[in-house]
């Protein structure tokens, strides 16, 4: 019962963050429209100019494709190949924070994962994430991510009692930007997956390990 409550609260939080993120462009547009109208009324000779599309947090979505290969180092010892299109929106930019300067982002990540131990199987995951990048305008960018999502998995590598499960992950790593359109990514992840007591048996599992891959930015 407690697990169900915890997961319900987590899901409600993720949904509320997602809806808030989706409303940011409208709020920014209203504020920009109001400020432009005021300045125009004050000085009729001033022409309206469009602001850069990324001048305010939440002004656009950024799309990327993440391809990673990893190894589970806990009790399960399987290899994982992951392909994930990622949709990212900036929430907050911290200019003056010393080593903590950076930007907070919302990420929606659907992924298809191929797991290999004594057999090869696949799984599908949908996960909203909060991501913080440390440092601004740098080639080497440390980051941290955390999220709660859903997982459909029918594979022995997972050793879960049900095909539908909840999944929460924490990740930390480094991005090395090769260009504006490509970067290398090294990260270490921790994950808990279980059915949150929705079935009679709920063994759950905790896994962790490194992932290495590339990200293509569009």
Would you kindly provide a written description of the structure presented here, covering whatever features stand out?
The protein is α+β, with helices and mostly antiparallel strands. The chain has one helix and eight strands, in the order H-E-E-E-E-E-E-E-E. The protein has one helix at residues 2-42, and strands at residues 62-71, 79-94, 102-116, 120-134, 140-153, 164-177, 182-194, 205-217. The protein has an eight-stranded antiparallel barrel. The termini are far apart. The model is unreliable at 1-9, 16-40 and 46-55 (pLDDT under 50).
Concise synopsis of the structure shown:
The chain is of the alpha+beta class. The protein has one helix at residues 2-42, and strands at 62-71, 79-94, 102-116, 120-134, 140-153, 164-177, 182-194, 205-217.
Total number of distinct structural domains: 1
Instruction: Give the topology string: H per helix, E per strand.
Output: HEEEEEEEE
Mean pLDDT: 79
Strand order of the main beta sheet, please? 1-2-3-4-5-6-7-8
Rounded to the nearest angstrom, the distance between the terminal CA atoms is: 43 Å
Give the overall shape: globular
Helical residues, percent = 10-25%
Total count of strands:
8
Which structural category fits the helices and strands? Answer: alpha+beta
Beta-strand portion reads over 45%
CATH architecture annotation name: Beta Barrel
Q: What is the CATH domain class?
A: Mainly Beta
